[in-house]
Design brief:
With 456 residues, this protein is α/β, with parallel strands linked by helices. Helices cover 41% and strands 12% of the residues. The protein has helices at residues 12-22, 37-49, 64-75, 95-106, 121-132, 154-163, 178-191, 211-220, 235-246, 268-277, 292-303, 325-334, 349-360, 382-391, 406-418, 436-448, and strands at 2-6, 27-31, 55-57, 84-86, 112-114, 141-143, 169-171, 198-200, 226-228, 255-257, 283-285, 312-314, 340-342, 369-371, 397-399, 426-428, 453-455. The protein has a 17-stranded parallel sheet, with no helix packed on it. Helix 14 (382-391) links the parallel strand 14 and strand 15 (397-399). Helix 5 (121-132) packs parallel to helix 6 and helix 10 packs parallel to helix 11 (292-303). The longest helix is centred in the middle third of the chain and has 14 residues, at 178-191. The radius of gyration is 25 Å and the shape is globular.
């Protein structure tokens, strides 16, 4: 049994009603429910008396250190079987870390701990690392984003990694680490016996200076499948170093996020080689990099290679125009694996999207999710888009937000949605102006086809 409630104010009567339900729940999710430390006292009792409870998610509640202390009393009882604990943005400080350390040391069932968006600081996370080093700790996933960590945390992290072969996922994004600390962390990862599968280092003050060490992790940890270094100024020279590790035969990367990394079209030669030869790679994000049409054309050539198995390509806000759309269309008509294309916030225009639609209509194309928000589209391309919607049953999600489609364009899209052959389940239309009459038509469409969700 699952309890999943979000963004609900809890009255005393409603809370009492839910407590009865929680006694038999396997999963409890109560994000954004205005919970406080007093609610945690009740939840501690639930943890203690409900041995089937394996997941507790309490993100975005003002629990505070006192609330976590209550929760940990339940977590430390022998009957507790909790495996996943989410406490993101719960107003915790380093004071909570001593209590959580006891849980990590004494509760082998706990495999996931998510404590991002809390002011734990370096001193607090050092205490958590002590708990991880206990032989009884079996932690597999640790999320420490936005925890006000500094370079001083690396020594404690490396010691924990060395003693914890069970750890599969480590997220340190949005902490002020810098190149020196990231180099030390990577050296520790190479030496550690852990089999890390996910490493997130977004917005950590990384430059090209530490990319050789990250590349060494890619070469030496064949278990690593998910790497995110977005929002770091690694540049074309850093990307070239990363690709040395990514192209190594032992690297089995599947998901690679490089958004806002100061890349230009010069990086696309290396990226194209990666896309065309690394058959494990299924998802790449290049959002907010200045790739331009020439860079995109190189990527499209790589997508046409039979060895490319890429399923998701994110190239939003990459300085693209209609000039690259013929190449994108050709790639869509060739690559059978690509399922998701995020190409919004580029000046494609109606002419560019008309070209894209030629590729989308090809029998080889299997696109399921297409994002074209803020692409300078008008009603002029809506008839062609409507044809794609009504014809390609694989297409289930379409984003046309921030485009001046007007009533005429929206009506053409709606006519396609009404057709039995259309399988679009989510249509995203943020910040588009239409008349009250069209608004009524959209609401009526949602009522007649409840499987369709129109987000505006």
């Amino acid at each position: 049994m699952e309890l999943d409630i979000q963004c609900e104010e809890m009255s005393p009567s409603r809370w009492a009603e839910l407590l009865t339900t929680m006694k038999s729940c396997k999963t409890i999710r109560l994000d954004d429910c205005n919970l406080s430390s007093s609610n945690c006292e009740d939840l501690s009792s639930i943890i203690n008396t409900n041995p089937s409870l394996t997941e507790l998610k309490l993100n975005n509640n003002e629990l505070g250190d006192a609330g976590v202390e209550y929760l940990c009393k339940g977590l430390l009882t022998p009957s507790c079987s909790l495996q996943k604990l989410w406490l993101q943005n719960c107003n915790l400080t380093s004071a909570s870390c001593e209590t959580l350390r006891s849980v990590l040391s004494a509760q082998p069932s706990l495999t996931e701990l998510h404590v991002g968006d809390n002011r734990l600081g370096t001193a607090g996370v050092k205490v958590l690392c002590q708990g991880m080093m206990n032989p009884g700790c079996k932690l597999q996933k640790l999320q420490l984003e936005y925890c006000e960590l500094t370079a001083d945390i690396v020594e404690a992290l490396n010691a924990a990694l060395q003693s914890k072969p069970t750890l599969k996922e480590l997220s340190l994004s949005n902490n002020t680490l810098g190149d020196t600390a990231v180099k030390q962390l990577c050296q520790g990862l190479v030496e550690a016996s852990c089999n890390l599968e996910l490493l997130h280092l977004e917005n950590c003050g990384i430059t090209s200076d530490s990319c050789m060490e990250i590349s060494a992790v890619l070469r030496n940890k064949s278990s690593l499948m998910d790497l995110s270094v977005g929002d770091n100024k690694i540049g074309d020279s850093g990307l070239a170093l990363l690709c040395q590790g990514l192209m190594h035969p032992s690297c089995k990367i599947q998901k690679l996020w490089l958004w806002d990394c100061d890349l230009t079209s010069a990086s696309c030669k290396d990226l194209s080689r990666l896309i065309s030869t690394k058959e494990t790679l299924t998802e790449i994000s290049l959002i907010d990099n200045n790739l331009r049409d020439s860079g995109m054309e190189m990527l499209c050539q790589a997508l046409k290679d039979p060895k490319s198995k890429l399923q998701e390509l994110w190239v939003r806000e990459c300085g693209l125009t209609a000039a690259c759309c013929k190449a994108v269309s050709s790639a869509l008509s060739t690559n059978k694996h690509l399922k998701v294309l995020h190409i919004g916030e580029n000046k494609l225009g109606d002419a560019g999207v008309e070209l894209l639609c030629e590729g989308l209509m090809h029998p080889n194309c299997n696109i399921q999710s297409l994002w074209l928000g803020n692409c300078d589209l008008t009603t002029g391309c809506c008839a062609t888009l409507a044809t794609v919607m009504a014809t390609k049953q694989c297409l289930t999600e379409l984003d046309l937000s921030y485009n001046p489609l007007e009533d005429e364009g929206i009506r053409k899209i709606c006519e396609a949605l009404k057709k039995p052959s259309c399988n679009v389940q989510q249509l995203i239309l943020y910040d588009i102006l239409w008349s009250s009459e069209v608004d009524d038509e959209l609401r009526a469409l949602e009522e007649s086809k409840p499987e369709v969700k129109i987000i505006s």
